[in-house]
Amino acid sequence: MSRFSKVRRAAVLAAASTTVLVGTLAVAPTAGAAGPGWNVTAVGGSSWEVSLRLPGPVPVRAAQPELAVDGVVLGVARQDPDGHTLTVRTADARVARAGRVQLAWNGIVAGEEARALRHAPVPATEAETLSGELLGVDPATRGTFGVRRADYDLGDTAVRLPGLGGQAVEERAAVYLPAGAPGPRPVVVFLHGRHQACFGGTDEDDFGGWPCAGSSRPVPSHLGYGEAAQALASQGYAVVSISADGINQLDWRAEDGGAQARGELVMAHLDLLRTWAPLKGRLDLTNVGLMGHSRGGEGVVRAALLNAERPAPYGIKAVMPLAPVDFARQTLPGTAMAVVLPYCDGDVSDQQGQHFYDDSRYAAGDDVLRSSLLVMGANHNFFNSEWTPGLSQAPSNDDWYLADDPVCGESAPSRLSPAEQRAVGAAYVSGFFRLTLGREQQFLPLFDGTGGRAGSAGRAVVHTQAQQPASVRTDLAPLESASRGVSLPAGAAYCASVGVAAAGQLPRCASDLRPVSSFPHWTPAWLAPDVPATPLLRARWKAGSSPRPVTVQVPRGTSPQVAQALTFRAATPQPVATDLTVTATDRAGRSAGVRVSRFSSALRPLPALADPWGEGAAVAKTWLRTVRLPLDAFPGVDVGDLATVTFTPTGRSTDVYLSDVALDRPASGTGTVPALPAVSIGDAEVYEDDGTQQVRMPLVLSRRSAVPVTVEVDTAAAALDGRITPTWTHVTIPAGRLTGSVVVPVVGDDVVNDAQARLTVTLSVPRHAVVGDGFGTLSVYDDDLYD
User: Fold this and answer.
1) Is residue 126 predicted with pLDDT exceeding 60?
2) How far apart are CA 213 and CA 170, in angstroms?
3) Does 384 lie in the same domain as 340?
């Protein structure tokens, strides 16, 4: 196997499991290895601990730090309290022969990104052009109200968060109010992400403790969304942008990266706003929207789920995760959502937040608009002015790591300037909450997949996926698994995830010959890496064959009377554009076909980025886009009495992904706080034995469900100890039941290990429920200590 495929395959496996290469070679345990600043130490008889000491504190990023041995990424590392040391535990004995240990991010060794361009040619890229109708009203236009500030600051230790083990953090916020606006106003809460939290002191002053030590002071990240806040407030919305520096300093201790704590902080601010005397009567807390940037994106999703568990919840109607992480893949049904993904994100470069959209589509029957937006030319940081060089008070940077990249480099023609990127952010943040909270329907085309554009977004190209509310959508074929109503040609199959398929899972949707960051739909989640990601249909037709179509049967009685279009999601992994003919046939046999390219660019590859692996190949991201084919594009066909819809290639060799075939019309929906049970996992304790034990961990619902509840259980985080093989289990709790369980195999030995190992088991991707306590602790006590 070439170095090219070896390195990529190992990195994909590492991203898919925090215990690397579970099928280890038969290498006798050794004392380990060591080098400048790093060492590999045998732990007991079955695992090794790899540690690296950095010359300075671990960089503060939204992405999780990883370790690599000899260029092969092991997985997410544990950060020690000294701020300099990273550790990974693995069962792969080959690390005992390590020649070097390195820091990595998102599956790529730190520093390799920039060096790659010296070996890789700069690829030619087809420029993307603006399309779609310009809205008559711009969402970021200043309204009729003046804007008054009513900031508050209760100090650095005002609130204690259970998600941080009871640590105290600040409760401060910038508040933008519409001056003179009558009555209670809709409320939008902004939550910034993980960024440097303290500055102005020494490296040690600025890192790891809270409140800021010595001469350092907090970074005012919460002041970085002023343009969006001003636009919304001038239109009559109250905007509260909260500070989360304390969480940023302490979240390396949290098992979930701080998501729970961030959600708790949002809820603490809403509780304060409800009783805050200066704002009494000014806020409508039955009409609330949340925007979270970076790790704040997962934080606001968690806040909405915490809110839904309350006896008297706030009226959280809409959530916008902006360049978010999604470490645990928790679904958010019943709440309007718009995920914003920057194509040039150099921090969360795998765009893992796409899972919020993918995982929530069929999580429960709900009546909300759900969107995912890909903003070309935008990076991770520049949506926040306090994370932008030249504007920020604290040090900041352009997070895109390849300065000469032809698509995302600082001088690339398609790259947005910081001002252009903030303008895009203000337009879409303002437009989304004016649509969902204010019912201002003129902004629907920005989010419903019809391709509307905002003038203030300038030259930015924004691609869209959209799932319409259930009341205006008839699902013909989700294309997640085999269905009696769908017939496939040879070469078409259902798939999920990337890399090498595990036993019992669908085939993988893509090979391991490209970085995982090329496939946002299939990026493995840090805390649930083995859970299958985004199942759909991959159809491949070979050159020279007589192509048979993918055929979707339309059930009798399906009424598209409310529908305006036939819709589906599509993409191609090919480096060149392809096309499909979509044919609609009614029950009288009348047919008409239309090419996808007439209405959509979904089957044209996205711009290619320079390959960060340094293998000389350009890499474009594969990201599905919604295709909308108007029903009047099928002349002569009785669209009220459809029999079949078929997909046929127009070229000799075609490779496409297809998903979510439906009939629908655009609408914003009528979302409510979901009345769904919360599923939680309990803890368990066991003494290690010399053999394998089957440990049962309880699952509990907060209330009975009229339909079966399903949830995915992943033990990959537990596998860091080496005593648990990383596994994925699909669990169903039958209708009417309150409890279930999952069995976790624990492998013992007769060697002295840690006296107690606390291992985390994660719940993710529930359907017909939401996640409550999604992390179970399995405590394993070493019996060999007492022999």
Assistant:
1) no
2) 14
3) yes
**Do residue 346 and residue 439 come from a single domain?**
yes
Distances in Å between the Cα of 1 and the Cα atoms of 20, 511, 513 are: 18, 15, 12
Same structural domain for residues 437 and 496? no
**Do residue 459 and residue 510 come from a single domain?**
no
What element of type H or E holds 585? strand 580-586
Give the structural domain span for 588: 482-598+611-664
| Mean pLDDT on 742-760 | 74
* Section 222-237 average pLDDT: 98
For every residue of 532-564, DSSP letters joined together read: ----EEEEEE-TTS-PPPEEEEPPTT---TT--
- Strand 316-322, strand 283-293: pairing: parallel
| Contact predicate 371/666, CB 8 Å | no
671 or 28: which carries more pLDDT confidence? 671
End of a domain among 433, 449, 472?
472
Answer whether residue 115 shows pLDDT above 60: no
Are 616 and 649 contained in the same domain? yes
pTM listed for this prediction:
0.92
**Is omega for the bond preceding 123 within 30 degrees of 0, making it cis?**
no
Which strands, in side-by-side order, build the sheet including 550-553? 486-487, 550-553, 642-649, 580-586, 591-595
pLDDT tens for each residue of 609-649 = 866 555 545 678 999 999 999 999 999 999 989 999 999 99
Average pLDDT, the chain: 88
Tell me the helices (H) and strands (E) count for the chain, helix number first.
9, 45
455 and 310 housed in the same domain: yes
Q: Residue 708 is part of a domain; what is its CATH number?
A: 2.60.40.2030
60, 194 in Cβ contact below 8 A?
Answer: yes
Q: With beta carbons less than 8 A apart as the criterion, state whether 572 and 598 touch.
A: no
DSSP state of 80: P
Residues 437-460: tens digit of each pLDDT? 999 999 999 999 999 999 999 999
* Residue 640 in tokens: 């009220």
Final residue of a domain: which of 88, 110, 132?
110
Query: What's the CATH code of the domain at 432?
Result: 3.40.50.1820
Question: What's the number of domains the chain is made of?
Answer: 4
Helix 259-275 vs helix 295-308: crossing angle, to nearest 10: 60
Q: Is residue 603 part of a domain?
A: no
Answer yes or no: do 454 and 341 share one domain: yes
Q: Within 10 Å of residue 761's Cβ, how many Cβ atoms?
A: 27
Q: Give pLDDT tens digits for 70-106.
A: 888 888 898 888 888 999 888 778 888 899 999 998 8
Inter-residue contact 492 to 550 (CB < 8 Å):
yes
Length of the chain: 787
Residue 367 falls inside a structural domain? yes
Predicted confidence (pLDDT) per residue in 297-337, tens digit: 999 999 999 999 999 999 999 999 999 999 999 999 999 99
Quick: pLDDT tens for 25-59.
Answer: 223 345 578 889 999 988 766 678 899 999 988 88
Say if residue 500 is in the same domain as residue 440. Answer: no
pLDDT of 503 reads 60
Residue 669 lies in a domain: no
**Could you tell me if 724 and 745 are in contact, meaning their C-beta atoms sit under 8 angstroms apart?**
yes
The one-letter code for the residue type at 676 is L
70, part of any domain: yes
